[in-house]
Each structure stands twice: as C-alpha cells, then as structure tokens.
Amino acid sequence: MILHLLKCKEHRRVGINVNDLATVNVDEKMIEKNPYFSQADRIIALTNGSISGNLCQRLVDAVYDLAVSRDFDLILIESSGIVQPDMVAKFISRGKNTDGRRLSDSCRLDTNVTIVDGFRVLQQFMPGVGECN
Description:
Layout: H1 2-7, E1 14-20, H2 26-33, E2 42-47, H3 56-69, E3 74-78, H4 85-94, H5 118-125
Parallel strand pairs: 1-2, 1-3
C-alpha cells in the first residue's frame, strides 16, 4: 500500500513511519529502494516491537516531529499486522509527545486504512473454507 501511495503522490512530500516487530525492518529497506521515494521524503523505522505496545511513545514522538517540521504534505503510518487500527487512531488523536505537547495541535488523523487477508478472514468465519476434502 505504501509503495502505491508513493507512486501516486505527485509532488507531495511524504513522511513515513514503518513499524516492524523484528530488529531488521524489511519494509523500510523496500520503501527506500523504491524509485518514487525521493530525497524530499523521510522514513522513520520503528523496529523491535509494536507501536501498540512498547513503541507507542516513539510513534507519537515521530509523528509529532514530522508534523511540526512542516516539511511534509502527508504522514503515513505502516503498522505491523498485530496492531489494532483503533489504537493507532487513538494515539494520533489523543497522544502527547515526550514533552507533553498534544499531537492533535500539530496534525490530524485523516484516514485509517486496514488491509486484511480476505481468505484468512473468511476461514475464521467459515471453518473448512479452502480445505481439500
């Protein structure tokens, strides 16, 4: 999704926060190598944890820093697969940076997109779907 947004960004400058549970952030490397990721863009890797847990404050601080810099037209957050979208929305709308400044004074949540594996979700609601008999 991030790669598609980069391709369609036109002349916008994008700040990206990428979360990965592992120490090595594979998505960060893929985004940086993308031809549509420019020098005007910036990526912040939030690694070795989850933004809904131990990296929550780092996420809020990173978004705050990107927002107050006014160097970016939009800020994207790519979370790991275990993060609940409502948690991210709450952090953006109610979070405070380490200095106690409210994030909502510097930016606002515009859109929250969730991408799911439709086949796996279907299997959870309809056991036996996709099994070979």
